């Protein structure tokens, strides 16, 4: 079967790959990297049998391994915790690469986009397939930068387990909390890897305590470090009471020894490890009744006699139940601790069949898959990443898209290896595949083998729903689960170099939107300009860069602007009549409505109808009214920003027979605009949650600067030698903050931002904003 495999060489410039992210605003190496001349980067991979060249490693086992031997995992963490470096070491030790990639050198496998290599960050989530000790591992390296949170969300929802990477000197950081919450939302079991144990200031105890305190998780210490900081030389395996030491003269970390701890040679270390193992046994016994019975029955007198296999099985059960998280440690950059991490992935994280998906029985073994990522390749068109939950996918297979209600045909089936792909004859449940030929499938679409199969599944779901009413709603949501796309907070205009290039720009933006649903593109009705809406400065900068590199368009960006919102402070009534005669037909509508503020935050207007209106209202007329209301609320009277937190009550509606729905919408929309103009208006601005890590020396300078930016400080914590400032700052005041912070602190501080909520501006600031925009209240 393997002899039929074909190799695809994909140019780094040609394929955009999985969109995921990771960046630290204060990485000095980013600017240093830009000074280096960009040269083609060559990597050595082991070769497939019968293939010319040495670009790709053989998939040792058969293409479709047993489902119990599959692990779908993601690597997630805060910016710069070492996710990509850990991935590179995993690929090297599993035999997929012959040389170690380095983020600083710009030659990593999973960071292959030009922007990623220049900046030393992960923007897209790269999927990699490899084998480890008889297990097939599908691994996704995800970003840590808040601008690309959607990339993490998109990939976590199709994974079975995750490795959370922490910087041992910092513990839990801002973005760690975000990705941890995302993993909780999708009920993903995870293990923790405390990376950078060799870094000055690394503290195993502090990092474990921060997991316990900030993440409210129960850490199970499966390893202890041998030394910290520069003294770090290996780890102790608590479960097996063994010492793992890496050869200091080894360049790649493959050479390490595993020795049992003995009373004669390591009495102190043995005593510490035995205490840690006993504490671990007690901790697991508290969480797992089956293990508690075993311990209290056979091994209550002496925990040392408890076999490691029994303890590992119990740890696996509590990990899958998500009542605790195993903790391991090491240093990916110094090549220490990665092999035991890979072992832990296969031992403690679940196989696809161990995840409980309620919708699977409805398909009775027929095809059920979820498209979780779409990217665009100039040669092959849309490439769709799919997680197969049941059934099998083959090339030339016709599939049915439930969301799009259409049938498409898969032309080719590939196994993803970052930006290189191997063509395969089939793929079964539990795997992640890359399909070619699907023109209409989008992110979040559910795929079945045929329309009849989907209808049969729906009938079974309905039957089961009769028995379990409440659970069925959740299961149905899972069946057609889409990715929740956050609202953009930045926007700017984008112009092509000439009018003749406008169609090329529209095509480029259409392709980029399919890859990245968090990018919104709209047309300004007044100026006719194209407007980009994104998640942050970096996000828009990357999009601009990709249009230039991948589509050859030198576009011009207007100044970045903040996505404000508007609301009203009091209830206002308005009446409007629209009377038009088109040809021989008269269109007459009279509407009376009330616009009022609502206390609960609501992006969409809440629509209410008076009893006299709703009685005989045709469905088409109701849709026309709601379209008119929604379109009117897209542009507020102050800044032309969307209006939120309002309710609209329709009190009376008189429609002349034969009036078109378009005229109804136009009349309602005009009436809403009239009411909004009469009301007391309020601008809402996006408020960002900010976390700054700074040394004591620069603390006062940073606090003074934040005070000038209308920031409110929530708390200041101490993390070893650093101070952690947590607070809220308006987004408008934080643009370009990374440069200012670097200047203030001589490049020593870092910060993380996350959208908190929209908050009302005070009158003085609102007046200044409107004056700057040339508007009056």
UniProtKB/TrEMBL annotation:
A Pfam family assignment: GTP_EFTU
Assigned keywords, A-Z: GTP-binding, Hydrolase, Mitochondrion, Nucleotide-binding, Protein biosynthesis
Subcellular location as annotated: Mitochondrion
One cellular-component annotation, GO: mitochondrial matrix
Reactions catalysed, as given in the entry: GTP + H2O = GDP + phosphate + H(+)
Positions of GTP binding: 77-84, 141-145, 195-198
Taxonomy, superkingdom: Eukaryota
Function: Mitochondrial GTPase that mediates the disassembly of ribosomes from messenger RNA at the termination of mitochondrial protein biosynthesis. Acts in collaboration with MRRF. GTP hydrolysis follows the ribosome disassembly and probably occurs on the ribosome large subunit. Not involved in the GTP-dependent ribosomal translocation step during translation elongation.
Annotated protein name in UniProt: Ribosome-releasing factor 2, mitochondrial
Molecular function per GO: GTP binding; GTPase activity
Principal location: mitochondrion
Family: Belongs to the TRAFAC class translation factor GTPase superfamily. Classic translation factor GTPase family. EF-G/EF-2 subfamily.
InterPro entries registered for this protein in UniProt: EFG2, EFG_II, EFG_III, EFG_III/V, EFG_V, EFG_V-like, EFTu-like_2, G_TR_CS
Limits of the Tr-type G domain: 68-353
Species name: Panthera leo
SUPFAM superfamilies the UniProt entry points to: EF-G C-terminal domain-like, P-loop containing nucleoside triphosphate hydrolases, Ribosomal protein S5 domain 2-like, Translation proteins
Gene3D superfamilies: 3.30.230.10, 3.30.70.240, Elongation Factor G (Translational Gtpase), domain 3, P-loop containing nucleotide triphosphate hydrolases, Translation factors
Matching PANTHER family: RIBOSOME-RELEASING FACTOR 2, MITOCHONDRIAL, TRANSLATION ELONGATION FACTOR G-RELATED
CDD domains tied to this protein: EF-G, EFG_III, EFG_mtEFG_C, mtEFG2_II_like, mtEFG2_like_IV
């Amino acid at each position: 079967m393997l002899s039929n495999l074909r190799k695809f060489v994909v140019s780094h410039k040609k394929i955009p790959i999985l969109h995921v992210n990771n960046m630290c605003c204060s990485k000095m190496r980013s600017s240093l990297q830009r000074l280096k001349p960009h040269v083609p980067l060559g990597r050595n991979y082991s070769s497939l049998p019968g293939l010319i060249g040495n670009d790709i490693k053989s998939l040792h086992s058969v293409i479709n391994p047993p489902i119990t031997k599959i692990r779908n995992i993601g690597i997630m963490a805060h910016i710069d915790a070492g996710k990509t470096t850990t991935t590179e070491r995993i690929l090297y030790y599993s035999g997929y690469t012959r040389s170690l990639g380095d983020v600083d050198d710009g030659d990593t496998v999973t960071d292959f986009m030009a922007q990623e290599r220049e900046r030393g960050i992960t923007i897209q989530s790269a999927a990699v397939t490899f084998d480890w000790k008889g297990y097939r591992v599908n691994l996704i390296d995800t970003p840590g930068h808040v601008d690309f949170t959607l990339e993490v969300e998109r990939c976590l929802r199709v994974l079975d387990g995750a490795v959370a990477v922490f910087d041992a000197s910092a513990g839990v950081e801002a973005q760690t909390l975000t990705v941890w919450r995302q993993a909780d939302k999708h009920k993903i079991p995870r293990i923790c890897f405390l990376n950078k144990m060799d870094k000055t200031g690394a503290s195993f105890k502090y990092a474990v305590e921060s997991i316990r305190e900030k993440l409210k998780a129960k850490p199970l210490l499966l390893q202890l470090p041998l030394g910290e900081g520069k003294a770090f030389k290996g780890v102790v395996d608590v479960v097996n009471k063994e010492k793992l030491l890496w050869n200091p003269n080894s360049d790649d970390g493959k050479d390490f020894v595993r020795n049992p701890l003995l009373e004669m040679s390591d009495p102190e270390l043995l005593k510490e490890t035995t205490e840690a193992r006993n504490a671990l046994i007690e901790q697991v016994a508290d969480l797992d009744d089956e293990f508690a019975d075993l311990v209290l029955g056979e091994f209550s007198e002496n925990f040392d006699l408890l076999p490691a296999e029994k303890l590992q099985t119990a740890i696996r059960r509590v990990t899958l139940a998500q009542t605790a998280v195993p903790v391991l440690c090491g240093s990916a950059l110094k090549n220490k601790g990665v092999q035991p991490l890979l072992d832990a992935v296969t031992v403690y994280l679940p196989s696809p069949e161990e995840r409980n998906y309620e919708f699977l029985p409805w398909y009775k073994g027929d095809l059920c898959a979820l498209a979780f990522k779409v990217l665009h390749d100039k040669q092959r068109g849309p490439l769709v990443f799919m997680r197969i939950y049941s059934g099998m996918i083959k090339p030339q297979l016709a599939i049915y898209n439930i969301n799009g209600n259409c049938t498409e045909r898969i032309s080719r089936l590939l196994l993803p290896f970052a930006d290189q792909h191997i063509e395969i004859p089939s793929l079964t449940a539990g795997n992640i595949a890359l399909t070619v030929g699907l023109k209409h499938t989008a992110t979040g679409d559910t795929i079945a083998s045929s329309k009849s199969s989907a209808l049969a599944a729906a009938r079974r779901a309905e039957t089961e729903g009769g028995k379990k009413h409440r659970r069925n709603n959740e299961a149905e949501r899972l069946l057609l689960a889409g990715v929740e796309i956050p609202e953009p907070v930045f926007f700017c205009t984008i112009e092509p170099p000439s009018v003749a290039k406008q169609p090329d720009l529209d095509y480029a933006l259409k392709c980029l939107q399919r890859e990245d649903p968090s990018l919104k593109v709209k047309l300004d009705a007044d100026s006719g300009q194209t407007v980009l809406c994104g998640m942050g400065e970096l996000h828009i900068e990357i999009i601009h860069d990709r249009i230039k590199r991948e589509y050859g368009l030198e576009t011009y960006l207007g100044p970045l602007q903040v996505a404000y919102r508007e609301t009203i402070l009091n209830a206002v009534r308005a009446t409007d009549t629209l009377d038009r005669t088109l040809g021989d037909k008269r269109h007459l509508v009279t509407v009376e409505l009330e616009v009022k503020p609502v206390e609960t935050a609501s992006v969409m207007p809440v629509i209410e109808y008076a009893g006299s209106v709703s009685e005989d209202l045709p469905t088409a007329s109701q849709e026309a009214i709601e379209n008119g209301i929604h379109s009117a609320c897209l542009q507020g009277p102050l800044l032309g920003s969307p209006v939120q937190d309002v309710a609209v009550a329709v009190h009376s509606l008189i429609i002349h027979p034969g009036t078109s729905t378009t005229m109804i919408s136009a009349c309602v929309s005009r009436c809403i605009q009239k009411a909004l103009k009469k009301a007391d208006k309020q601008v809402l601005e996006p408020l960002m949650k900010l976390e700054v890590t700074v040394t004591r020396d620069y603390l006062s300078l940073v606090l003074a600067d934040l005070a000038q930016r209308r920031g409110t400080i929530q708390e200041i914590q101490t993390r070893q030698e650093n101070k952690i400032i947590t607070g809220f700052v308006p987004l408008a005041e934080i643009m370009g903050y990374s440069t200012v912070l670097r200047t203030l602190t001589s490049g020593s501080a870092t910060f993380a931002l996350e959208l908190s909520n929209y908050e009302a501006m005070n009158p003085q600031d609102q007046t200044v904003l409107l004056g700057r925009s040339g508007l009056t209240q």
